[in-house]
Design goal:
The chain is built from nine helices and 14 strands. By secondary structure, the protein is α/β, with parallel strands linked by helices. The strands form three sheets. The chain has a six-stranded mixed beta sheet, sandwiched between helices. Strand 12 and strand 13 form a beta hairpin. The protein is globular and about 75 Å long.
Length: about 350
């Protein structure tokens, strides 16, 4: 009863995009799939969706091979926008739902319900190109879930969203989780991983370098983090001279220290008090997922309030609804083109909608 990736490998020419990927995602779980750009995340998602076929290895859901499952099993929120720019929001969402067999009347009801819950009901008759980047992302999310998929794969869902839209999208994710849906989240925003994910894997150059429940991954590092704040001048340069201690953040509010295994974190507090400092914050914690990511991958991850009540992909196949259909095979994890700022309307395009073709 799980999503299981077993020994997935994939090569593009001389590039080994995936090299024996193994992990399991349990139903009703939010799972973090993390890695630097080009690590193999998007390639893995495309194999799960059967957009690409692996050179070796398998993907199964409830013990059935992924390529044998109906398309409605999966929902996909791509990093790139996959909306028809000159088509009205309601019309294209109903069109996408129809590709999964959702009747027009039911699809229309679901679309209007989700637009109301995302607090944008007035956008039903607007063209997608008239919407801001954040609102386009909400429309893209609706397109991914209208057919009620069992598994939702999301590639950088929070990029470009303001805090209010982030909160709305997070609440929708958690609601789906509580309904027993399985969510696989790929993002560079590590604070979202800490908040949403029960388990993670980190992939680097096509290989899993760490994985497991978030708490276990943190504790396995063997280090502790101390957050120390003092009244007055926050500069405590002498802390860097302590054995087994490394300053990883020095700010005006507090200093954050890595404490190696075998060093008592409370010895730092004693040393600070012995120097006559007045301590207003002292916290002992595990390393953050971002710190573990940097340690294991060696790069800093980059990118980027409540719902309203409910009213009264080698071997290719056709692109999934909401997924852009490239003219040719893209390189694995190819970065998206420049996009408008969150509050700017999307640029106009000349591509035709299904109705115009």
């Amino acid at each position: 009863m799980s999503l299981v990736l077993d020994s997935l490998s994939k090569r593009f020419g001389t590039t080994q995009a995936l090299d024996g990927i193994n992990f399991t995602v349990e139903p009703g779980q939010v799972f973090g799939f993390l890695g630097a750009n080009g690590a193999g995340k998007t390639t893995t998602m495309r194999i799960v969706l059967d957009i690409l076929r692996p050179d070796s290895g398998t993907v199964t859901w409830h013990s059935r091979p992924a390529h044998e499952l109906p398309r409605r099993t999966w929902g996909y929120l791509p990093e790139e926008r996959g909306l028809y720019p000159r088509m009205k929001v309601l019309d294209q969402l109903v069109f996408f739902a129809a590709l999964y067999g959702v009747p027009t009347v039911e699809a229309t009801r679901r679309v209007r319900e989700w637009l109301a819950r995302f607090r944008i009901p007035e956008y039903a008759d607007r063209r997608a190109e008239e919407l801001s980047r954040g609102n386009q992302q909400k429309i893209q999310f609706i397109a991914a879930i209208l057919h009620d998929p069992d598994v939702l794969l999301m590639d950088e869902p929070f990029v470009g969203l303001d805090p209010v839209n982030v909160a709305l999208l997070k609440e929708a994710f958690l609601e789906m989780r509580d309904l027993g849906k399985t969510l696989v989240l790929s993002t560079h925003q590590m604070e979202m991983v800490e908040e949403l994910c029960e388990s993670i894997v980190i992939i680097d150059r096509g290989r899993i370098v760490v994985g497991g429940p978030v708490g276990d991954v943190k504790r396995a590092s063997g280090r502790r983090v101390v957050r120390l704040g003092v009244t007055g001048d926050p500069a405590l340069a002498w802390l860097a001279d302590l054995d087994g201690v490394r300053v990883i953040r020095s700010g005006r509010d507090y200093t954050e220290l890595h404490v190696e295994a075998g060093r008592d974190p409370e010895s730092i507090l004693r040393a600070v008090l012995a120097r006559g400092e007045h301590v207003n914050r002292f916290e002992i914690a595990d390393p953050s997922i971002e710190q573990i990511f940097i340690e294991r991958v060696g790069v800093v991850p980059t990118e980027e309030t409540t719902l309203a009540a409910v009213p009264g992909h080698g071997t290719s196949r056709p692109a999934a609804p909401g997924e852009p259909a490239p003219a040719g095979e893209a390189a694995p994890d190819e970065p998206a083109p420049d996009e408008p700022a969150p509050d700017e309307p999307a640029p106009r395009h000349e591509s035709a909608t299904p109705e115009e073709r």
